[in-house]
Amino acid sequence: MKTSTRAHVDAQPRGENVSAGKARGVTAGTGVDRVHPLWLRITHWLNALAAIVMVLSGWRIYDASPVFKGFMIPLQLTLGGWLAGALQWHFAAMWLLMANGLVYLGLNLTTGRMFTKFFPLTLGAVFSDLFAALTGRLHHNDLRRYNAVQKLAYLVVIVDLIVLVLSGLAIWKSVQFPSLRWLMGGYDTARIVHFCAMAVLVAFFVVHVVMVAIVPRSLLAMLRGR
Question: Which CATH number, 1.20.950.20, 1.20.120.1810, 3.40.50.2300, 1.10.150.20, labels domain 38-224?
């Protein structure tokens, strides 16, 4: 009887440890912390591919009819070679971005990751972490936890991609979506909104790449999940 009781008592902490491990993202049977699930890594890289293709082809489309007179994107940085070719690349990447983006948002919401990873978020925490980052005192020991600046950046880029898609639709299907065109302030304003949203995306991409260079473990985590 004593042996049975002792076995039950000894087994209980182990069960608790297994549950705690799952909550922390420890892969069963390996003891290895999982930073990113497989679905997140797949959608991340597909989003990155689609966004890069859309930006490069979008620059070629922009050059065919510049929004800002006198400002042109160097041809060497564009994709498509000519306007029709750039449009084909742009539309192909657009469908990929829309489909994959919906999967990304849907899984983030249904799994609860959207709320556990990006919230809570306060303005004070953003300024505090930003100051720590600029002074070299922001640590990245636990890749499973986002600091306030990361949370804000990821939320901004999610909203920015939505604005890109909507403003793009207002430009592409201006007659079919008159309400969307009106929401964007008209066709010409929609082009400005689209360009500015693209600029925000490029700025995010540059900062993102710099941060990956500073913390290369984050790239490995996005490739292998841990």
Answer: 1.20.950.20
